[in-house]
């Protein structure tokens, strides 16, 4: 009776026997007596990518289900937790990173012949098909809401240098492209001039260890003058 009433064509209906696996739960054993409960603990690996453009649970990654099924008058209420590993791309530094996501579900799956099934649209309340519940669309929606649109590898990710694009985490906090402060510019020119304008006293105290060819030339000329 119930099987026939569920015959309205559904575009995603699969062919062949569908059985309990992955995110599909067979609720036949639960029965229909309201209040009856069953726990489902399972690791699901047969699924597509679950998430957003920049961050998602990769396809076939191990997703942990810790659920409770409860028969209610209109269907089966699924509650519990779902969690799995995510791979993301940091929206600031573009580096790939690993994380975890966890969601809590509370979702009613209406019996095919229930009043709920008759009086609601398919996109309002999930439906049970042939005593099977497919959690994948529910999990996909919930994870999509839970994951960040702008994922970060860490909350304080420094991102990329806006001038040259180098990873700030590698370049360090001193990295920058600012024009030198005038005070530092003076010091810098002094440092450049220093080798050539060696103090004559210094040249005479270390005649055998000239710092450069230029210094040695100066030393030689000074020695010649002394003779
Ligand atoms: Zn980052
Ligand atoms: Zn830079």
Automatic annotation (TrEMBL):
Region ranges (Disordered): 1-21, 193-227
Domain of life according to the entry: Bacteria
Biased composition annotated in UniProt, kind: Low complexity: 211-221
Pfam families in the cross-refs: YceD
Protein name: Metal-binding protein
UniProt source species: Nocardia mangyaensis
């Amino acid at each position: 009776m119930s099987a026939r009433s569920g015959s309205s064509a559904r575009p995603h209906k699969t062919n062949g026997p569908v059985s309990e696996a992955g995110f599909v739960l067979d609720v036949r054993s639960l029965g229909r007596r309201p209040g009856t409960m069953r726990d489902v603990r399972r690791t699901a690996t047969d699924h597509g990518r679950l998430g957003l453009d920049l961050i998602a649970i990769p396809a076939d990654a191990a997703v942990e289900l810790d659920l409770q099924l409860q028969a209610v008058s209109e269907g089966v209420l699924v509650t519990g937790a779902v969690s799995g590993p995510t791979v993301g791309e940091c929206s600031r530094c573009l580096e790939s990173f690993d994380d975890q996501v966890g969601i809590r579900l509370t979702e009613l799956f209406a019996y095919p012949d229930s009043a709920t099934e008759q009086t609601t649209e398919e996109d309002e309340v999930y439906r049970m098909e042939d005593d099977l519940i497919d959690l994948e669309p529910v999990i996909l929606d919930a994870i999509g809401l839970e994951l960040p649109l702008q994922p970060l590898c860490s909350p304080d990710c420094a991102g990329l240098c806006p001038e040259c694009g180098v990873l700030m985490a590698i370049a360090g906090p001193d990295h920058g492209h600012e024009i030198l402060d005038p005070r530092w510019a003076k010091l810098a020119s002094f440092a450049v001039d220093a080798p050539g304008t060696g103090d004559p006293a210094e040249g005479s105290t270390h005649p055998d260890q000239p710092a450069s060819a230029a210094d040695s030339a100066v030393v030689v000329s000074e020695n010649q003058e002394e003779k």
